[in-house]
Amino acid sequence: MGTRGGGIAMVLDRGGGRWKLIRMTSSKGKSLDSASLATVAAKAGVSISTVSRIVNGQTRRASPETVEKVRRIIEEVGYRPNHVGRSLRRRESRLVAMLIANLDNPAMAAIADSTEAALRAAGYVMFLCDTHDRADLQDDYLYAMRSHGVRGYVSVVSVPSPGLKEFVEAGAPMVFVSRRNPYGPGAFVGIDNVRAGADAADWFLARNITRPAVLFPAQGSQVTRERVIGFCDRMQDRGVPGDAIIRASAPGLSHVDIGYEAACGLPPRNWPAGVMCVSDQIAYGAYRAAREGGVDVPADSAFVSIDGNRINSWLAPWLSSIQIPHDAFGAEIVSLLLQIWGGGGAGERILPHRLG
Amino acid sequence: MGTRGGGIAMVLDRGGGRWKLIRMTSSKGKSLDSASLATVAAKAGVSISTVSRIVNGQTRRASPETVEKVRRIIEEVGYRPNHVGRSLRRRESRLVAMLIANLDNPAMAAIADSTEAALRAAGYVMFLCDTHDRADLQDDYLYAMRSHGVRGYVSVVSVPSPGLKEFVEAGAPMVFVSRRNPYGPGAFVGIDNVRAGADAADWFLARNITRPAVLFPAQGSQVTRERVIGFCDRMQDRGVPGDAIIRASAPGLSHVDIGYEAACGLPPRNWPAGVMCVSDQIAYGAYRAAREGGVDVPADSAFVSIDGNRINSWLAPWLSSIQIPHDAFGAEIVSLLLQIWGGGGAGERILPHRLG
DNA sequence: CTGAAAGCGCTTACAG
DNA sequence: CTGAAAGCGCTTACAG
Known about the structure:
2 copies of one chain form a homodimer.
Chain A: E1 7-12, E2 19-24, H1 37-44, H2 48-55, H3 64-77, H4 83-90, E3 95-100, H5 106-121, E4 125-130, H6 135-147, E5 152-156, H7 162-169, E6 174-177, E7 187-191, H8 193-206, E8 213-217, H9 222-237, E9 246-250, H10 255-264, E10 274-277, H11 280-292, E11 302-307, H12 312-315, E12 319-323, H13 326-341, E13 348-351, E14 354-355
Parallel strand pairs in A: 3-4, 3-5, 5-6, 6-7, 7-13, 8-9, 8-10, 10-11, 11-12
Antiparallel strand pairs in A: 1-2, 12-14
The structure holds a DNA duplex.
């Protein structure tokens, strides 16, 4: 922005022979900053307004010769609109904030990936914020993003926080992903977690596994709870007594650690023939515990989980994971944002999962 | 930003009894936008300048009572400085662009993670851009970031591109990570790849593996080439004939795919006792090929690679990976940025790797 | 101790 | 067809 290190030049105004002081970018062409509208206008001998209009595609409001000349100069000096000035004036930007719990999680990275692509295709720029699952950081980012004039928010597995509540109540355009808005209704993209859990149950029953374990975080979210409930309910609906299912959980935030710890609590002598993990990361952790306990996966014990990380086919061939179509999330997220901006209200997009 | 949907209010100017027109945020307190300096100033009965100074910590230039009153109002209306206005005026922001080749790669995600934390600690906000290893996208992002007034750039495994060249030549504050500046000297954070390759050779030799294979991308970067060279040179220096090393490569960008394909070319009957992969992802791909070929890893064939992804201890216990301290990159990157901004010139930070 | 004014780069009614 | 002017929110010499 601006012209740090730029010089000053005098230029004769086309119109009335008056002198005009204009700033010019460094003569060496070495300036980091792009030329401004003023530079282009001066070089073309037209007003800033005219250049602005042409930059914004209003070409019929200028003579063909002017348009041609201005375009040539723009090309010549490599002019690019300054988004900061534009944002300030228009009071909106092409920025969308993406708040994500943890970049280290491949599932999150996949969602970020597809959202970035979809936003870019729609002409927006994604502003990625890693909240580390912390309410205070989430709020810091929300306020910072607002200060940067972002036009919308995508909140992936959000954590409840005062700032989030404030934003939701103020009607900030926000799409929730995986985890629903904790403060009311709202746009949502995700899967049917109860059904995913039920599908895992069916998968076991098809293999005559009727005394499985289910592994989940002790301080679970709605998401993990629904998966567990879907699993257990289906099992019981199909005749498995409730106490035949081993429920194993562990505290903490890291799902790998939770999986490991929870699995360490399973009976070593009587290891279940099937282990349902509510996330891939939990399965990764449980896998190590199984190995350490001398259990052969999947020969002795079938592992099923929910996520379907791409890496599984390479590193975890022993895992049957219900695939969440993270690659398809981005398009739905952007479509919902556009719908909200268009005044069409929120909506829910429940995407189909499948056991690949 | 601004006051979409806000109303207008008349307020009596403290000083001269003149009328002043000020904007106010929506009376319902439901505005998405934060209050502006003007709002605070009007409520406090002082000028915008005074509020601005107090916001920026210049408290000794105002009476204690004024400071107190203004602070109370700021708290009351929840004022937060608008970064867009501030950036435009100051002609700099607290934004740092992070250009990264591929979020899907855990090594990249780890670098992004530690950089984000280090930047945040230093009072900056990271703007993450996924270039998908494409020169055109990298340039799009570079120009877009400049338009947003970012103050610095971090380029992780950058790809050569016209825009990058332009930025480098214009002296943009930029730190290169893993891969050096292709257009001259410049700030750099990474490891000694030749030595890492040599260490892998030593590891094999310590286990009497003298007929290893080395797997690498056909269109390799300087980075992968150095690792291969370091490996082969050390092998030969220690008496292994050059043709005893099987060099296997495959084209493409995806390292898992490259690893798989390259390993498929290894002699099934005479599979090498040691496989050196220039990255973890290549090892993941090669591992599958080995399994499919009936090779038991690590019993029949020892796998060594370079990266040290955190997930390895859970999912790839068969892999001995030289650990790159990605978690420590962030601090070095930020320290270099601060050094550049401070006029201290660039520098190289070669971090120690180790085989855990 | 405090405020009026200029200006960052841009857009947009408005006037000609 | 074109330009002067106002103003987005902020900072900062400058004047008092």
